[in-house]
Design brief:
Layout lengths: L6 E5 L4 H12 L3 E6 L2 H12 L4 E5 L5 H15 L4 E4 L14 H31 L6 E5 L12 H21 L5 E7 L5 H7 L2 H8 L10 H12 L10 E4 L17
Parallel strand pairs: 1-2, 1-4, 2-3, 4-5, 5-6, 6-7
Helix pairs in contact: 1-8, 3-4, 4-5
Bound molecules: nicotinamide-adenine-dinucleotide.
Length: 263
């Protein structure tokens, strides 16, 4: 159990990739705080995880500083410590570059990027104090995307937010390295969450994705959770400032791969 007795906060863990990470962390022995705006799904996730381990749902909008402060205080109340933060909460707003509303640009950036900064700063302050008192360091993991480097024309704020996430990872890593605190990121390609569920029933949309996926399949949330578990563990003790891409081979691919026709 590589995360035995560790305390982890996972934002956006009421569903999708975040819930897969929370499940994996609990399986690896961690006590997990599910931080999410979706009360119903957050409580359902808490109930599920409590069947096999320790988990607590705390309502938190990561873009609100007060919520983030309460998240850290609530985690310390519940488990007495924090070792791991996963900044996973994220949203998409698709719109043509020429039509995108300022409010939508701000909303995506404030959740995907500013939210990750607020959570990182609040947790890092706790971790640094702990290190100064002779305690262990801890680790922060940011959920980036292949869209940090590649781009989609009608995903303007999303692509910008993920590009920023890679730089947040690097500046965080440099700032916190003197304390031994590691900051890394994961850059998924297309992963089968609710976000992509509609693609399964739309062969043309699926073929489009697969034509850019050399491994010929869409990824599963648990395949991202495995990377988070590795980065959070002592096996990654000398890795900081990196983004690990899990994209079925998309980033090395120029142009497209052939896609077999569906029956
Ligand atoms: N699914 C993919 O293909 C894919 C690919 C690359 C990167 N990602 C990234 O992975 C992360 C998770 O994506 P997902 O596919 O699981 O999405 P999802 O929509 O299934 O889950 C996102 C979760 O974040 C929560 N959330 C939204 N706004 C929030 C806020 N302000 N504060 C706290 N929680 C909030 C939602 O309630 C939800 O539970 C995101 O950062 C996303 O950009 C996903």
């Amino acid at each position: 159990m590589s995360l035995e007795n560790k305390v982890a906060i996972v934002t956006g863990a009421a569903g999708g990739i975040g819930l897969a990470i929370a499940r994996r962390f609990v399986a690896d022995g961690a006590r997990v705080v599910i931080a999410d705006v979706d009360e119903a799904k957050g409580e359902a996730a808490e109930a599920e995880l409590r069947e096999t381990g320790e988990a607590t749902y705390i309502h938190c909008d990561v873009s609100e500083k007060l919520d983030v402060r309460n998240l850290v205080a609530g985690t310390l109340d519940a488990y007495g410590d924090i070792d791991i933060l996963v900044n996973n909460a994220g949203i998409v707003v698709g719109a043509d570059f020429l039509d995108l509303e300022e409010a939508d640009f701000d909303r995506v950036l404030s959740i995907n990027l500013k939210g990750a900064f607020l959570c990182s700063q609040a947790v890092a302050r706790h971790l640094v104090e702990r290190v100064k008192q002779g305690g262990p360091a801890g680790s922060i993991i940011n959920m980036s995307s292949v869209n940090a480097v590649l781009a989609i024309a009608n995903q303007v704020p999303y692509s910008v937010s993920k590009g920023g996430m890679n730089q947040l990872t690097k500046v965080g890593a440099l700032s916190l390295a003197p304390y031994g605190i590691r900051v890394n990121a994961i850059g998924p390609g297309s992963i089968m969450t609710e976000l992509l569920a509609s693609v399964n029933s739309d062969p043309a949309a699926k073929a489009k994705i697969l034509s850019r996926t050399p491994m010929g399949r869409i990824g599963e949330p648990h395949e991202i959770a495995g990377i988070a578990a590795f980065l959070a563990s002592d096996d990654a003790s000398y890795i900081t400032g990196q983004t690990i891409y899990a994209d079925g081979g998309r980033m090395p691919l120029n142009y497209t791969v052939p896609v077999p026709e569906e029956d």
